[in-house]
Write a structure and sequence with these properties.
The protein has seven helices and four strands. It is α/β, with parallel strands linked by helices.
Length: 168
């Protein structure tokens, strides 16, 4: 095991909001699964994803996150981008508007989200690939894990709009 990597139990004991979760996040956390984490609520899961997409558009979150990513690849022609946990693809849609020659692989752990992206306008874009992938299975993103995998070989930037957590 690498010294700088958290142990299995450290990840398991981490709050859902990640290591920087506020006291309120920690106080309100329960053991009850959220709709996005449940396999028995496909309809509600899609409704939550649609609501998150709408919220991202209304409050400018897609724009804000896309601009942060764009600033990193602005001068890179045909930049390779890997989006982790894309759910609805809002970040990638906006990033493609800002950088039309970017090649983006959108991934999500939820097959329904990947299917919806692949069947939609974003999935029809010639520079977009939609893939089912669980980044949690790749413990080390920087080393020999996800960034050197066949999911998306050697991207210039990896983006995600929410913290990744282990498991579902």
């Amino acid at each position: 095991m690498m010294v700088h990597m958290p142990t299995e139990s450290a990840i398991d004991d981490m709050p859902r909001g990640g290591p920087d979760a506020s006291w309120l996040d920690r106080e309100l956390q329960t053991d009850r699964l959220e709709y996005l984490d449940r396999d028995d609520a496909a309809g509600k899961k899609r409704a939550v994803v649609r609501s998150l997409d709408r919220m991202g558009r209304v409050f400018g979150l897609h724009e804000r996150f896309a601009r942060v990513a764009f600033d990193e690849i602005r001068d890179v022609p045909d930049a390779k981008v890997l989006e982790l946990g894309s759910a609805h693809g809002g970040l990638s849609r906006r990033l493609l508007e800002l950088h039309p020659s970017a090649h983006i692989t959108v991934t999500d752990v939820e097959p329904g989200s990947v299917a919806a992206i692949a069947a939609g306008e974003l999935g029809d874009h010639p520079c977009v690939t939609a893939r089912h992938a669980d980044p949690a299975i790749h413990v080390e993103l920087r080393g020999g894990g996800l960034l050197n995998s066949p999911i998306h070989p050697r991207p210039q930037i990896v983006v995600a709009t929410r913290r990744l957590r282990r498991g579902r």
